[in-house]
Structures are given as C-alpha cells and as structure tokens.
Amino acid sequence: MIEFFITPLKYEFIVHGIIAGALIGILCGIIGVYIVLRGMSYIGHGLSHAAFGGAVIGYISSVNLYIAAGIWGLLSALLINLITRGKKIKADAAIGIVTTASFALGVALISRIRRFTKNLEAVLFGNILGVTTEDLLIIGAVTLIVIIVFFFLYKQMLFVTFDPESASVYGIRVNWIDTIFSTLLAASIIVSLQVLGVTLIAAAIIIPASTARLLTNNFHKMFILSIIISIFTSIAGIYASFYLNAASGATIVLLGAAIFTIVLIQNYIHRKILEHEHEHVHSHGDIIHHHKHLDKEEHRHEHEDKNSSLE
Amino acid sequence: MAKMQEQTMIEITNLSCRYGSNEIFKGVNLKIEKGIFAGIVGPNGSGKTTLIKSMLGVIKPTKGKVYVNGGLVKSRHPSKIGYIPQLEAIEWDFPVTVEQAVMMGRYNKMGIFPWPNKEDKRIVRSVLERLGIIQYINHHIKTLSGGEQQRVFLARALASEPELLILDEPTSGVDLKTQHDILHFLLTLNKKGITIILITHDLNAVAAHLPWIICFNKGIIAQGMPEDVFKPEILKKTYNADVTVLRSGGLILMANAKPLNTDD
Q1: CA–CA separation, A91 vs A86, rounded Å?
Q2: In chain A, which residue's Cα lies nearest the Cα of B107?
Q3: Among A147, A241, B217, B238, which residue's beta carbon has the most beta carbons within 10 A?
Q4: The domain containing residue B212 runs over which residues?
Q5: Greater confidence, B259 or B213?
C-alpha cells in the first residue's frame, strides 16, 4: 500500500507534479467558490481559451509563455468587463466573443506552424511531465498572493459576491474588488494551464466548489470544504494520471466529477428519505399542521406568527 | 454648498438621471431634514427607485449633486447609511446563515482580519434579539419566512449603526401583520433619532401611516404630512389617474375613482 504512494515519488517529475497539483488545488478551491456563486463558470472556461491565444503568440515571438498569456488574459478580462459595463451585452456573450476569438487566433497560428503540434496536446489537456522548478516557483508565488489577498479581502469578496449593490452602499469598493478578482482569476488560470490544460481547467475550478455547495449552506464551511476537496482531487488525480498513464487534467477532472456525483446522489437520497419519513404533524390550538421538512440542515418547528411581534 | 445646515440629512440639487438614452427625471431638487420618517410614493416608472439609488450612490446622475449628511455622494458611500434592498433582489439560494448576512453590516467597522471580534458578535446578537429572530442565527437565510427575511436585512442595516435608513419597498411580499410590525418598529427607531426614507407603492397600508410623504413622478409633486398631501388633485398629478380619498376618523383611504364597469 505504501509502495503505491512512494513509487511515483522516485521520479522528480512526479514530485514536481504533486507539488504543483497541491498548489493548484488551493488556487482552484479558493477561486472556484466565487466563480460558482457568481455564476461566472463560463468566464473561467473563456479565460483559459483566451490565455491560449496569448501563449501561442508568446511562443512564436519567443516571449515568456506566462508573461504573454498573462498580458493576453488580463487584456481579455478587462475587455470583457468593458463590454458588459454598457449592459446591452451580457457577460456570457462578451466572454464568448472575446475568448473564442482569442482561442481561434491561437489555433490559426498553430496550424501554420507544424512543429508546435507535439506540445499542443499538453497545452489542451494538461501534462505534468514538463513541470520545471521555475514553473513551481511561479505557481507557488501566485498561490501565495491568492492566499494573502483572499485572506485580507475575505469579507469584501463575500459581500460583493452576495449583494454587490448593498456592498457599495456599505462602503466597499466594488469595482476594485471585481478588478482584483479578475486579475487573480486570470493569473490562477495561466499558472494552472500546464497541469490542467486549456480545455479542462474550468471544470477543475468549478467542481470542488460545486461539491462543497451541495454539502453546506454556510459560506465559511463551503470555502474550507472547497479547498480541501480541490487539494485532494488534484493530488489524487496526479497519482491516477501516473498509474493510468493519462493526461493529468483529465484525471483530476474525472475524479472531481466522480466525487461530485456521489455527493449529488447522497443529497438526493437524503432528501427523498426526509420527504417520506419526516412528515411533521403538530397543532396550534384548533389548527393542525401537516408539513414536510425538506431541509436537511434546519428543522424549524416555529411558525411565523410566533415570536414575530417587534418592539 | 459644502457648508450645509446641520439639520439637513439629504440635499439634492438639480438632479438628472438617465438610463441609456431614456431620461428618467431631470432638475429634481429635494431637501430632507434629519430625524424625519418619510415615504416616497409614486407609480411604477416614476423614477422613485432611481431617486433613492442616487442617494445611495449606486446610480451616477447625469447632472446635479446629492449630499447626504453634508458629504457629496460619489460611487462609494461616505455616510452612515443602512440600506435595505427589496426582498426580490436578494439571492436567497446564496449559502449564508442569518449571522453571516447580518455581520456584513459590520464589515466596514471590522479590522483587516476576516473574523469578527467579540464586540461585532455582541452587536449582531443584540440586533437579532431586538428583532426577534435570534433563534435563527445559524439558519440558512432561505429557510425563513418573508417577514423574518425582511428582518434579517433590517438587522444588517442596524448592525452598521446607521444615522439614515433607506428601504426599498420594505413591506411588499409580507402579510398585513408583519407589515404593521415592521412599520411600528421603524417608528420606534425613528423616535430614537434615525432618519428613515422608504419607497412604497402601497398608499393605504403603508404610506397613510407614515409621518411624512413625498409624492414623486419624474419630479417632486408635493411633500408634507399625509393629511395635507393625500388629496385628489395631488394624487391625480402623481398617478395620472383619478383617486378618491376617504377620511374616517384618523384614517385615510385611497382608491381608484373609476372602478371597472363589468356591464360594458
């Protein structure tokens, strides 16, 4: 059993991959919470495609891949923000236009240069083979920045995600928070590109947070659960990738989806059981109430009129 | 302009707002004194929501200025305002407990760390107690009834220790008794010195019980005490419809003067 865990660690590339996986797990777990709650899943999907365009341009013009993808991703995010500010074009359409055009540019450029095709698969689906020490340092730096920023802006991020209009009334700089979030999202996606792959990165961000959402109605708990699930699926996914000899992005996403499915089924069964077994009957004077308790976390037996008179 | 009289809570000068190419109102002037409990009434599309959103700094006016408590309102609000949005505007499926939602009212007073201190927790608990919803402190906001949900957001506003409360249709979607309880509670807050402004479309159940009324339809039509403002000629100007006003003791009742004729 121990062999199972130790054997892969004899290879340096696997150790690199696992460290990268753990860091990316933290990144995706944190970012995912806000992406899921804001209904921005599509933006993660889009940004990775946008960054792909930047990465290809970087490759051709021999600029550092991270810098090229970073500048390109940031420009795309700002452009999307700009287009949606007019309110006539909704976010999903703006993302579709900007990022797919960017991805198309990358594909068009690559199809002209045949020699890039070998690396193309790695960029699209994720590959841990090529994680260098330099890559690890960059992923580590971004993870550290994300942890620090989300620690100190935790309150503001929560308020802006829940109720942006009130947040601004209560003194929070909503535009600033949005800009910081977009920037960190873009940075997280770019540093995760190599391990997770352009086409799979969005799912790796969304799945742990969605699973956590199913498990709790409490924001703080959801935040912690999302990070734990994300780190677990990343590391376990990389092990699986080693043993199955499959693309790392794919194994991480498949493992995440499996956990999500289990939780979803468990949730469904739990609710069905409550519906059947927990019909609740009680009375107030002459009135007899029958009702079902659908909620699994709270069991309220009070009624509106009780405790309702104010000062 | 910067030197305003100390008793003025809101001063709006020559305010114009538009949404896209659609002009909502222009050249609005309004002064609201401190300590007042005012209801802004008007039909749908009259711009009353836009008016309060300009007070809140949520909407940028095309022209004119809004001062709240002596400070110019820009995109970020400088003043101690407690805002209670419409219940329909809240995302009830969002995973926050009652305590977490109410704690948001403390955020601008909390330090740089993410967690609240004892004082923040104490204030949140005491507000929940005053509003009679302390027993739901760890419940998901969605599991509460309409009246309780309304109180959660009232609690959030009070947790911020405001000098001014602005409420957007606070009594829509709750039953008559809850409506009465909420109005009564607001009145006690007002007596303790908090200025309150609410918008409502409900003339009888809400507006007629408020101490001060502002009739609004793309501009101020009239303002004053209910008995002075609720007159057929003023209401006709406000609603573009004939309204009959009935007075019975201290009660004012308003109804459409032209009931639908089913014989036609």
Answers
A1: 11
A2: A155
A3: A241
A4: 1-78+201-264
A5: B213
Would B161 be classed as within a structural domain?
Answer: no
In a domain, B168, yes or no: no
Find the CB nearest A311 among B91, B130, B142: B130
Residue of B nearest to A222 (CA): B95
According to DSSP, residue B236 is labeled: H
Residues of B in contact with A165 (CB under 8 A): 56, 58, 85, 89
Contact at CB, B140 and A298, closer than 8 angstroms: yes
> CA–CA separation, B95 vs B42, rounded Å?
35
ipTM for the predicted complex: 0.90
Interface check for A304 against chain B (CB to CB < 8 A): the answer is yes
Beta bridge partners of B247: B252
B116 in a domain, yes or no? no
Report the number of distinct structural domains present in chain B.
1
Nearest to A170 among B107, B178, B181 (CB): B107
List C-alpha distances in Å: B206 to B87, B89, B184, B190, B251: 17, 20, 11, 16, 12
CATH superfamily of A2-271: ABC transporter involved in vitamin B12 uptake, BtuC (1.10.3470.10)
- Give contacts of B177 with chain A, Cβ < 8 Å: 305, 308
Non-local CB neighbours of B251 within 8 Å, separated by 6+ positions = B208
Task: Tell me the pLDDT tens digit for each residue of B173-202.
Answer: 778 888 888 899 999 999 999 999 999 888
Asked if residue B115 is part of any domain, the answer here is no
Residue B31: CATH number of its domain: 3.40.50.300
